[in-house]
Amino acid sequence: MAEVSVPETVSPAHRQQSANRFRIPMIVIAFAAAFWLMREAYAVIMPAACALLLALAVWPFSDAIRDSMPAKLRWVGAVAGLLVVLAILVAFLIGIGFAGTHVYDLLSSFGPRLQEQVGNFPLPDILTDGPDQGADKLVSNGMLASGAMTALGITTNTLAGMVLILFLILLMLTEADDWHAKITAVAARGGDRRWLDIGRSVGEKFRAYFIMRLILGALTACLYVAWLAVFGVDYLILWGLLAVLLNFIPTVGSIVAGTLPVLYVLVTRDPATAALIAAGLLVIEQIMGNFVDPKLMGKRLSISPLVVLLSLLFWSVLWGVVGAILAVPLTVLLTMIMAHFRSTRPTALLLTDQSSFEDLDRYIEPNG
């Protein structure tokens, strides 16, 4: 009689080992695919991410206005929330426009002096008296036209992106009650309230982050201006405004805000004065970064400083300046989501500066 072969059974340990062998390559592939998608779909994903964060931030205000209105006027709450966001964006655009104009004038004014100090080293036309007078006028006009078209394109894209963000915010705030009811119904059916908790937590932490960044930027600007005024440095309003605006870019922003006035003094005055100003600004930055900032922020955004720097690099490569501004809020959003799911909780713990899962649970609470 012929023998019947019995297939060997695969042990659970061997099956788990095989699964682990492919886990890291699959994670790498998924990460690369997500990075590619977010970069290629920047025009859609970036406005949606901005709108979501801003809508979550003004949601309590909009909800309070909506609840105080009659049934037919509940839409006023969404409009009120939108107007708050619009006022913030307009204020930032005005500040950026003011700073950009004055930086351009500043570069044009001390450019010739910088040319004298660096000798024969070639500088851009903006830092000198302009293009070579002997250059072909047609080429110069072409460069001006190209620069004008580039500036027009950037302005048009920025305005279009802002309009899209505001429209998405209005839709999100208008349908907030419906989505809240849907998520509540799903949570009641499955006993899972994670997405409600995530929304509340992210909104609370983003509001805290924005307000604290604004306060810290204003305090830093006041100290910068006071120290620079002691030495009679010009353009005090510009340096203060840059300190406020660049404070929203973690780590790198404060370095740039402190370096620009030092470079200006180095070119227009003498190295000794520039060194004294640099030392004072460094002391101010150390006090603000190591003492005032932790006291104000507390444990609201307990993201590891190393993770903050790495996230700044990642989001800057992905989305440029907008990514640098959104680096911390987006990292907090991803951390909050991962902290609510068992399989990704270890990763969330590594991203924060918490030391245990019990501390992580307290951190992700809506009022944590």
Structure description:
It is globular and about 75 Å long. The chain has a domain at 40-190. It has twelve helices and no strands. It is an all-alpha fold and 368 residues long. The chain has helices spanning 12-40, 42-67, 75-118, 137-174, 176-190, 194-230, 236-246, 252-268, 271-297, 305-339, 345-351, 357-363. Mean pLDDT is 77; it is low at 126-140. Helix 1 packs across helix 2, helix 3 (75-118) runs antiparallel to helix 4 and helix 10 (305-339) runs antiparallel to helix 11 (345-351).
Share of helix, binned = over 70%
Choose one word for the global shape. Answer: globular
Uncertain spans: 126-140
In whole angstroms, the N-to-C terminal distance is 74 Å
Report the major sheet: none
- Reading the helices and strands in chain order gives HHHHHHHHHHHH
**Nearest-angstrom radius of gyration?**
26 Å
Oligomeric composition of the shown chains: single chain
